[in-house]
């Protein structure tokens, strides 16, 4: 087991009358992949936002391993794009780099564009990008400050199959380079490829955990179906 990067203990999140999360326990090792599965409204996005430090739990604890502050360690890709449509791809990355206090934002932008296969469209406005290109630029943006953990909220949604496949391979590459990944998704096959462990959220609670020894696509599919069936 790699060194622990992040742990959540008894995390609750309530919004007025809605309990979005209840009693969440989880641990993530450095460089590990965790898939979060669950139907709409299960609390996946809320959980990712809490890990990103964008939302605060109403109960429990979120703890990162000793080291740099949370903001510098986490890259977040949410449902809503953080890209500015009127800026070019490169300008978006330079701008994000400045926000994060990256040392040489221009050089970092060029590096990220190359990593994501976007050097050829560096000077085009994000507005004209296909969903697949925008998602690659969003990954670049999430990585601008070289975070060790990437939080990806349904990154495949809205992509055609070739773009989803390309993104999946890219995420495998990032995992291989040592990034920890937390992936909220409905896509069990992709989850099984990218994550060593998984949890199934239903109505804000962890209904099932799949560990590294168990992880395979068929096992995950069955575990997910069972967790949904067992819920009212
Ligand atoms: P998922 O991503 O699994 O679809 P969410 O985390 O978006 O689930 O939502 C979990 C629950 O919390 C839902 O019932 C949702 O309506 C509620 N919720 C999420 N965000 C808010 C908010 N800002 N205010 C009120 N309720 C919210
Ligand atoms: Mg969601």
Main attributes of the structure:
single chain, 232 residues, alpha/beta, 6-stranded mixed beta sheet, 3-stranded antiparallel beta sheet, 8 helices, 26% strand, binds adenosine-5'-diphosphate, binds magnesium ion
Strand percentage: 25-35%
Count the beta strands.
9
Calculate the terminal CA-CA distance, rounded to whole Å.
Answer: 35 Å
**Gyration radius from CA atoms, angstroms:** 18 Å
Q: Mean of the pLDDT scores?
A: 94
Notes on the protein architecture:
It is a single chain. The chain starts with a strand and ends with a helix. Strand 8 and strand 9 form a beta hairpin. The mean pLDDT is 94. The chain contains 8 helices and 9 strands. With 232 residues, the protein is an alpha/beta fold. Adenosine-5'-diphosphate (ADP) binds next to strand 2 and helix 1.
């Amino acid at each position: 087991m790699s060194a622990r990067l992040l742990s959540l203990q008894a995390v609750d999140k309530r919004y007025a009358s809605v309990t979005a999360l209840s009693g969440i326990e989880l641990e993530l090792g450095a460089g590990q992949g965790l898939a979060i599965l669950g139907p709409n409204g299960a609390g996946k996005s809320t959980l990712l936002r809490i890990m990103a430090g964008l939302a605060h739990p109403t109960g429990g604890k979120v703890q990162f391993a000793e080291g740099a502050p949370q903001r510098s360690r986490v890259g977040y890709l949410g449902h809503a794009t953080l890209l500015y449509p009127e800026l070019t791809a490169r300008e978006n990355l330079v701008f994000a780099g400045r926000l994060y206090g990256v040392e040489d934002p221009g050089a970092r932008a060029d590096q990220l564009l190359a990593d994501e296969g976007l050097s050829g469209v560096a000077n085009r406005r994000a507005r004209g990008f296909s969903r697949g290109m925008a998602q690659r630029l969003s990954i670049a943006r999430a990585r601008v400050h070289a975070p060790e953990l990437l939080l990806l909220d349904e990154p495949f949604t809205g992509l055609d199959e070739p773009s989803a496949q390309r993104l999946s391979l890219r995420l495998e590459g990032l995992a291989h380079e040592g990034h920890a990944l937390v992936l909220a998704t409905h896509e069990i096959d992709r989850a099984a490829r990218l994550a060593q462990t998984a949890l199934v959220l239903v109505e804000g609670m962890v209904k099932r955990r799949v560990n590294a020894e168990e992880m395979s696509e068929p096992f995950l599919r069955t575990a997910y179906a069972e967790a949904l069936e067992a819920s009212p």
